[in-house]
């Protein structure tokens, strides 16, 4: 089948829309016509010169679309189903079968290599050369994707499908970290470092569970103001020299929960030091350098834990978030700005500049 996709051929180059050939679906697969796909900072990883992803590559891992073809022996879906696409997992290893697919034994091969475990030529260019198209099992910066059925979540057809893709990763990560991984509870205190799509999703989830104080730390005043509208009770300018003192003051000695979405070691140190004894810090951002912690910081029962995908089961969490959205309690759509897929390079530029929180590309 002939499709079009945004192909990255050089770590420092531009995405270019190309005519490509997509192979037929096989057992356990779906072909999905992409209606919208979120742009996430994780999509920038193949730009790192030392990153192990295969190039050329089609990225995109927050897709939503309509099922157009179903592989033989693939139950649970019908032609025309509306689906949100999330991360891929084997569904057979110990972590998968115990409800933690984000920690699948093959997570990095399936999601971050671009080629997937099969290493097959899913998409080829006009010369017959393969293009990596298994980024998070979907490579959704294209008009169509062939995906594993297990990383597709059916949603009601009356929902605005074009904006639902970010639920499959960024929004799921932020909200799931609060609701599932850390189990933030009513009356607790939560500090969120970084008011991007992941951080603001955590803020909204904190409000849903009834956290007494939700503090957002960021450098962007517009995003800080939006976080107040979405559920934060306090905001702090991250450029201040007294951030830690202010956090301890607001939380009366320290928060029970902190979340870092930046990956910046100095910010992580602040997030850990802002905890009260027995508090927990969740790390969501891609690590940007070595992290050194004073062991005395952890000696009073503090915990630091990495979190992937909010430790969520997408088929469980995504419908829950959509129901909260229907109720007006999780207005994730306020973070979204739409771009045509042909403007993917502008969407990336606006993301890096902090001008757009969550771009959604429309093929």
Automatic annotation (TrEMBL):
<keyword id="KW-0479">Metal-binding</keyword>
<comment type="similarity">
    <text>Belongs to the zinc-containing alcohol dehydrogenase family.</text>
</comment>
<feature type="domain" description="Alcohol dehydrogenase-like N-terminal">
    <location>
        <begin position="27"/>
        <end position="155"/>
    </location>
</feature>
<dbReference type="InterPro" id="IPR036291">
    <property type="entry name" value="NAD(P)-bd_dom_sf"/>
</dbReference>
<dbReference type="InterPro" id="IPR013149">
    <property type="entry name" value="ADH-like_C"/>
</dbReference>
<dbReference type="InterPro" id="IPR013154">
    <property type="entry name" value="ADH-like_N"/>
</dbReference>
<dbReference type="Pfam" id="PF08240">
    <property type="entry name" value="ADH_N"/>
</dbReference>
<dbReference type="InterPro" id="IPR011032">
    <property type="entry name" value="GroES-like_sf"/>
</dbReference>
<keyword id="KW-0862">Zinc</keyword>
<dbReference type="Pfam" id="PF00107">
    <property type="entry name" value="ADH_zinc_N"/>
</dbReference>
<protein>
    <submittedName>
        <fullName>NAD(P)-dependent alcohol dehydrogenase</fullName>
    </submittedName>
</protein>
<keyword id="KW-0520">NAD</keyword>
<feature type="domain" description="Alcohol dehydrogenase-like C-terminal">
    <location>
        <begin position="197"/>
        <end position="314"/>
    </location>
</feature>
